[in-house]
Amino acid sequence: MCLLSGRLWPAILVVGAVGGVAAQGPGGRLVDGVQIVDNIARRSAPIAFTLSAKPNLDLGGLKASPDDEFSPNGGYLNGVRLSDGRWAVIDESRIRFFNPAGRQLAVVGRKGGGPSEFQQITGICRTRGDTLVVNDPINGRVTVVAPNARIVRSVAVGRADLLWGGGCFVDGTFVLVTAAPSVGGDRYMQLVRRRLDGKTTQTLGPFWQSTPDRFLPSFSTVVAQGTKLYLSDPRVNEVRVYTAEGTLTHRIRSADPIEELTSAEKMALTPAASPRAGNSAANKAYNADQDRLAPRPPLWPTTASIAVDPTGRLWVESFRKRRTEPHIYTAFDTAGKLLGRLILPADSPAIAFTAGGVLLWRTDKDGADHLVMSQLVTPR
């Protein structure tokens, strides 16, 4: 893949309703049947979206019984909106259904390995007829749940992961990630498409997945939405768009330069994980030696994650160098043209984007978790 030059194109913004924000930058060009869409740098794009003054939905929070609170063990807390306005939210071992006003209607699941039990739900997506698919890789299975909160079936899939950003196509199929052979130390993945009865219909890949860097690991994000598959690559400023069958159709680029780490930034890095667990003196000495000898990465990743809302807009999150930095998302229209940025507080990451809003994860002063829905508006 080629890197973009970093040239900043003139920005043009037409202010109006959220759906009417004008796209930025030059037009696309067709190369061997693939649309190459070049855009201005994300960092120079105008702020085209802000949050409404007050959220219109607040799920979760402190309850009289701890069992009624969200339990996002491992950081897996996510939700999808059904066609009738209800919400289905996953935490560690349960699926909670809420009405459009936020009142809990039903709870499916409990901790365990038996029928209707989950060890750790790591993903949820919605396909045709509001059918839900949830993933439990510790139990090695995917569970299909009807919109009336009834479990339809569980399918054994082994240690596979449902796509976090959205793993369902509109036709009733879903996509799982499985490991492919590593190449040169980098990890690669295959994408396995299955029907709701569990039958595999297609295997795509391998695709680059991650760099297992001790100090600065970077990961690809894959999203299945509607009839398209989106794949980010944090080594470059590009998102590739495929058909559900795996045909590459678009390469959406932005002109942000690839940033090198300074000497000071390299020395300030702390290891993301220790190769040898334990608190013994020998383990601490070993880990200290590994930290000292391990090479520091030369480049910052360009992106953290991507998401796609029901209208087909692509949202690209910029990589944060520090956890205290805000979450910055840049929106692109269905043709890949840049629309503008949305800046969220450091403690309020976006969990999902709806047609006109965003679902945020917040933790209150009591340590209770909330999923808060706010509308997106265009600043005037």
Write a structural description.
This protein is mostly beta strands and 380 residues long. The chain folds into 2 domains: 50-256 and 343-377, Neuraminidase, CATH 2.120.10.30; 262-296, no CATH class. The protein has helices spanning 263-268, 281-293; strands at 29-31, 34-39, 47-51, 57-60, 78-81, 87-90, 95-98, 104-108, 123-126, 132-136, 141-145, 151-156, 161-162, 173-183, 186-195, 200-211, 218-219, 222-225, 228-233, 238-243, 248-254, 303-308, 314-318, 327-332, 338-344, 350-353, 357-363, 369-377. The relative contact order is 0.17. The model is unreliable at 1-20 (pLDDT under 50).
Helix content, binned percent = under 10%
Radius of gyration: 21 Å
CATH homologous superfamily title of the largest domain: TolB, C-terminal domain
* Unreliable residue stretches: 1-20
Termini gap = 38 Å
**What structural class should be given to the helix and strand makeup?**
mainly beta
CATH topology of the largest domain: Neuraminidase
Q: Mean pLDDT score, rounded?
A: 88
β-sheet strand percentage? 35-45%
The helix-strand sequence is: EEEEEEEEEEEEEEEEEEEEEHHEEEEEEE
What is the domain tally? 2
Q: Count the helices. How many?
A: 2
Report the CATH architecture of the largest domain. 6 Propeller
**CATH class division of the largest domain:** Mainly Beta
Largest sheet: 9 strands, mixed
Total beta-strand segments:
28
Give the CA-based shape.
globular
